[in-house]
Amino acid sequence: MKTARASAGPAMDIGIAADDRADIAAGLSHLLADSYTLYLMTHNFHWNVKGPMFNTLHLMFMGQYTEQWNALDVIAERIRALGHPAPGTYKEFVKLASIEEPEGVPAAKDMIRLLVAAQEATARTARGLFPLLEGAHDQPTADLITQRLEVHEKTAWMLRSLLEE
């Protein structure tokens, strides 16, 4: 038994039950996959946008993908702090994400529409974690989710505003 315990590492007791930690890590893995897909989509659009709104969108998308990139590490590290491995491959992200990547290079306004939908999808994924977090008394993850929701909702609003006449 000593060998098995030593290879498993020390027991974790942070005040959140092991089953709850596993469920929260699974939910965060879905959020990480949506966030990575959103990051990649936004960076792709930054590279490929064209037309009369080029400069505005090119700069806006850069700010958005940079913010999104930094968030990936925060989400992944929270999964690790809960004692679980973070997904980190395209194959895993495709399985876990609720966002479908577009094919080809959409027109600028279609890029905006797709990003609104992806921001909103990511917000829905994040919001879906709250009941589990409240039951497990996981305030650090709830704080992370609240911060992510604020970013995704605000970004969706700003993008949506570009589509208004």
TrEMBL record:
- Domain Ferritin/DPS, by residue range, is 26-164
What the entry lists under InterPro entries is as follows: DPS_DNA-bd (IPR002177), DPS_DNA-bd_CS (IPR023188), Ferritin-like (IPR012347), Ferritin-like_SF (IPR009078), Ferritin_DPS_dom (IPR008331)
Q: Show which residues constitute the signal peptide.
A: none
Which GO molecular function entries does the Swiss-Prot or TrEMBL record give?
ferric iron binding; oxidoreductase activity, acting on metal ions
Q: Which residues form a coiled coil?
A: none
Which is one Pfam family of this protein? Ferritin
CDD domains on file = DPS
Which Gene3D superfamilies does this one have?
Answer: 1.20.1260.10
Family according to the record: Belongs to the Dps family.
Specify the protein name: DNA starvation/stationary phase protection protein
Q: Specify the taxonomic lineage.
A: Bacteria, Pseudomonadati, Pseudomonadota, Betaproteobacteria, Rhodocyclales
